[in-house]
């Protein structure tokens, strides 16, 4: 039978089922309480959505949905019994909870770590993991501080936010089998995975049993056994082959400037090298702001303290060299802190409003 390791303490699943574990931190206690409920056959669970594109909400997810999701991921990666899993995500959210479910369903050894920016810090060079899930910031920090430990991971999935071009290239050079995930709380974590290569765009492959199609306006439609119903998303995609898709952006982020439809995510990919050269490590996004003349105009919002006139000028010159007049950001806003969800995703609409309120 599997077990959960917390530091130097190892707790067999059988003891967790009985509720036998030492008093720990709130994170560890609530994670083990979830495991106890699962091992005792709980039929349903309440999960919170992240709120990255709308108001956060609570949804009910049944046990069968979570079992189907875990089994599909296990089949995709061919995970064997007794695998070593590292759970270093927030287990009140779907991504962290599903790491626990996978470990329980796969009869694995789960290494349970408090979420932090450096999830591998407490492990040595000889420690290895068969399956790990991280968010981009954890991967980025690990590359800086313990890249050799990342190479001790067999399968690494990365979710919660898209990878920057720079991080995507760095991850592609690792020896571990690294994938970007696509999914949401309503699909009980990911329903598709994209092998991380050095150059965009990434091509997503659906999990076993998942069927996809598109609407007339190219929005992704998901028919998955781990979801309760067919889901029509706001994600604009292309379908290059059966069971695969390339993510283009979100329909609710689309900018309509004088009748010209502009997908901000595409512009962000083009701006990324400029940002890396002039504002390394700073987060940014492209959005549509109200315009009396055009209805909406393209703007760039950067998370940074106020910059010098020279830096602002250099950025404007580089942008002018890169974009056509229709796609070129008409204004650049600098704000010190983006609004975020509990899971660290940027709230674009709130951050844009913050920028507009500050500078208008």
TrEMBL record:
Domain spans labelled AMP-dependent synthetase/ligase: 49-197
Domain AMP-binding enzyme C-terminal: from-to ranges: 285-345
An example molecular function term from Gene Ontology annotations: medium-chain fatty acid-CoA ligase activity
Pfam family, one: AMP-binding_C
GO biological process, one term: fatty acid metabolic process
Family per record: Belongs to the ATP-dependent AMP-binding enzyme family.
Name assigned to this protein: Acyl-CoA synthetase
Lineage: Bacteria, Pseudomonadati, Bacteroidota, Cytophagia, Cytophagales
